[in-house]
Amino acid sequence: MGFFRNQFSNVVEWEEFRDDMIFWKWSNQEIKKGSKLIIRAGQDAIFINNGKIEGIFQDEGAYNIDSEIIPFLSTLKGFKFGFNSGMRVEVLFVNTKEFTVRWGTQNPVLIRVPQLPGGMPVRANGTFHFKVNDYVMLIDKIAGVKDSYLVEDVKIRITSVLDQLLMKWISREGKDMFNLQANAYDIANGIREDLDMEMMDSGITITGFQVMSFNYPKEIQDMITKTASHEMIGNLQRYQQVTMTDGIASGHVKGGGAASDMTGMMMGMNIANEMMKNLNQNQQPPAENRPTAATPSKEGNKKPNFCPNCGTKNEGANFCPNCGQKLG
């Protein structure tokens, strides 16, 4: 859209607004009598004269500059438009929204670990959030020399120091180097505070920083997974049994070799023993119902007083003294 609708007036607005643009400067043109200022939602308009802020306008809408804007400018209140002359000022449009940016380490960060002399390479990724909070600093450090500023410019500055901050806060808060995710909140909070200090001189504040995940080399990740599996099983012998069973079920352990045949035989014997043990336990009656060995009663051992064969009196002998009949 052209700035000059006629020789007397123009429109001051943010042309070709972009969501990834932090600010855009309307400059090098004269504001003429009858010109209008247009502020859209999510924008602030800052009038600058000779590097100084003259006024900040935040409410969206269309304004007549000479009647609604100039009376509120700090040092230009008495400015009168000439017939063919205008007022040369800059208008900085600022995107007021909070920006969200994804980040990821370009190269592994080497973290000191006693078990690994060369350090453990760790990658990480996540998001951070920022917004403009200080217009004076923004103009002094950035807008004074740039006509526009992109989210990508902030991302480049953030990622340039992110590796060092990750190393610092992982070493400080990473109590378990093989489970950094458990301390992700504390690590991220420390990094956010440092990044906020880093960006303070640009008029930008870091409103949030998150670590979504830490990534280890494949060998270390495999070790972590294996260790976790052992702990979940809780018993090495049990783990071996489960591993062997999984191998047979998946077909990874097959017949055709001495080792696999022996493995199958041992597994079969173990299963058979377990089955027999369970069968015996299931069939065995309760202790209170089990028969006990008969003990001979005193009455069963008592000798008869007379021989049942011949009637001879017995004096406690095992055999009859008359006929030889067994008596007990």
What is Rg? Answer: 47 Å
The biggest sheet, with number of strands, parallel, antiparallel or mixed sense and barrel status, is: 5 strands, antiparallel
Classify the beta-strand content into a percent band: 25-35%
Shape annotation: rod-shaped
> How is the largest sheet built, in terms of strand order?
6-5-9-2-13
* Helix/strand order, N-terminal first: EEEEEEEHEEEEEHEHHEHHH
Report the count of strand segments. 14
Low-confidence stretches: 1-7
Fraction of residues in helix: 25-40%
Mean pLDDT: 80
Cα-to-Cα separation, first versus last residue: 134 Å
Q: Number of helix segments?
A: 7
Structural class: alpha+beta
Map the helices and strands.
Layout: E1 11-12, E2 21-26, E3 30-31, E4 36-39, E5 43-49, E6 52-57, E7 61-64, H1 65-69, E8 87-88, E9 90-95, E10 99-104, E11 109-113, E12 116-132, H2 135-143, E13 148-150, H3 151-173, H4 184-199, E14 204-215, H5 218-233, H6 236-250, H7 258-283
Parallel strand pairs: 1-4
Antiparallel strand pairs: 2-9, 2-13, 3-8, 4-7, 5-6, 5-9, 10-12, 11-12, 12-14
How would you summarize this macromolecular structure in one to three sentences?
It is rod-shaped, with a radius of gyration of 47 Å. Helices cover 34% and strands 25% of the residues. The protein is built from 7 helices and 14 strands.
Describe the structure.
The chain is an alpha+beta fold and 328 residues long. 34% of the residues lie in helices and 25% in strands. The chain is built from 7 helices and 14 strands. A 5-stranded antiparallel sheet has the order 6-5-9-2-13. A hairpin with a 2-residue loop joins β5 (43-49) and β6. It starts with 10 loop residues before the first strand and ends in a 45-residue tail after the last helix. Residues 1-7 have low confidence and may be disordered.
